[in-house]
Amino acid sequence: MKRDCLSGIAITKAVIRVGIASLGLTQKRVPNLLPKAPVKKGAIDVPPLKRVRSSVVGCFSAGEGREGGADWEVFSPPTPPTPSTPPTDFDHTPLKRGDRGFRVSVRKSCSLNASSLGAAALTLQALVLFTSPAALGQVFPSGVRTIDLDQQLDIPLNNGIQGEARDRADVLLRLGGQAQRSGNFDKAIASWLQALDLYEKSGDLQGLGRTYDYLGLTYANLGRYQEAEDALRRRLGVARTRQDFQGQIYGLNNLGTVFLQVGNLEAAQATFTEALKIARSVKNREAEGLSLSNLGLVAAGRGNYLEAIKQYEAALFFRLQSEDSLGETNTRNNLADAYRGAKRHRDALTSYRAALGLAQSSRDVPNQFRALRGLVQSYSAVGQYLLALKTLDQHIALAQKEANRSEELIALRLSAQVYQVTGNLSNAQAFYVEAISLARALGDTQEEAFLRNDLAQILYERGSR
Question: Within a domain: residue 163?
């Protein structure tokens, strides 16, 4: 048995060296595209993501990131099952924070003053309601997934390799999955690192690759990008050693989403392009859709919205053919973001509506929030403020149903901004007060400070009239 373990170690180390050596991607470090602070006064978009949970990297949603902003898509392997349950996926549902009983009392008493609509155009000249197109897809609300998962085929843990070390590694893999689902990421990482060592000793490349996946995705969701990149490169090396084309495709997409998160668009494009070539060579339509959608994110990140639209529309063709409803929803939201960036607001409305319908049918709550926010922004861009407020009612209702107070805070802030841009300062003030109260309850001191600043300006404007 000892001789077998030593042999396994030697073989594993050798093949991993070969696999990793085959990764020729160069890296160019540039500043992170994700904003470091919430959008400032006047912006109707959402505050930056607080990295407190696992969301997507297997492909990060992708974002498609991912995500909630455009999400990049990443591919995630199934979460290791507990001994008493069948294999399950990582839990990527948004965090549910706060009290379900919280209600927005001021919403019922506020209405859009019809007389204020005439001044809306002039008000828009003075108040920037939207973030710049370059920022689309780069900001995420607190509690919303960073990424959306494309699911990998479930491969049974028992792959024929026997031994005590391997059995212990399987247990550690499951324990890490339990810890990850409960939000104890440090414990999850510690378990998986132990599992790595045991899989290496037993010569189990399949278990090794899967564990690198878990580590890479978790590191990325925690913002530990260098460690995420290292783990995902090693996972890719294992897939190449095993001639696992599906593992290579999704490994490349996962690695590319890490490059997206740190703003290395050049490396991201090279990685997604390689994934697309492999997907086409093995005629994997679902993977083609994923890779094309992620290439669209790169184009959008460069501000090339026409190219992004082209890539997203191509991705939709494959996602429809492969009946990938989650991927289709992500891509339709991404496409709508690109339309909005290109000032094609009518097209954006159509795409957001389609994404919302799909998300509602599949009970995909994060994509529902994302589509609703996009609809609010697009309606406001074309001056349809009553529809924007009606959509915000839906957003608030969904947030309360899901007990997601972070999303409720976003809706309160957006409502205040819509009323402010139409000149209805009384209602805007009421919503800012409500939002400040909720931000304080959530302990979000930075957002509370921005909201207080906005409220002070509202009070100044009302006092000067």
Answer: yes
